[in-house]
Automatic annotation (TrEMBL):
Residues 21-67 are annotated as: Disordered. Residues 1-26 form the signal peptide. This is I78 family peptidase inhibitor. It comes from Pseudoxanthomonas kaohsiungensis. Residues 33-47 have a biased composition (Low complexity). It holds the Pfam family Inhibitor_I78. Residues 49-63 have a biased composition (Pro residues).
């Protein structure tokens, strides 16, 4: 089931259950049930329509970074050319060098290679994100 359809299922169930609440006359029950079924069908149909520009429910892009390809750099001294070659070898779009005590944003980017270095610029870890 697609994500929009799973969001609408509880609404449809609530509408059907509301039609069964006590205090309604049999005629009201039939009308409310028909309305609930119609509303659920319309909701299911609208869930089939993709969002405009595919933005709202589009899955995130698949990560392209593969840090396993550059693990051999751990222990080496980082140079600009090494960082760029590591980015290319890992298939990452960007590279970020993380130095000791540096403030770092915590958002995950599956297309970014992170190279962690110590105070002497020696590479201590290489990971994607």
């Amino acid at each position: 089931m697609t994500a929009p359809a799973t969001r609408l299922l509880p609404l449809a169930l609530v509408a059907v259950l509301a039609a069964c609440s006590p205090g309604n006359t049999p005629e009201d029950d039939g009308t409310e049930q028909e309305q609930a079924i119609t509303a659920a069908q319309q909701a299911a149909e609208s869930a089939k329509v993709p969002p405009p520009n595919g933005a709202a429910d589009a899955p995130p892009p698949a990560p392209t970074c593969d840090a396993t390809q550059v693990q051999g750099l751990v222990g080496q001294v980082l140079e600009d050319a090494t960082a760029e070659q590591a980015r290319v070898d890992a298939g990452a779009k960007t590279v970020r060098v993380l130095e000791p005590d540096q403030m770092v944003t915590m958002e995950f980017d599956g297309e970014r290679l992170n190279i962690e270095v110590d105070a002497t610029k020696k590479i201590v870890a290489v990971r994607c994100g």
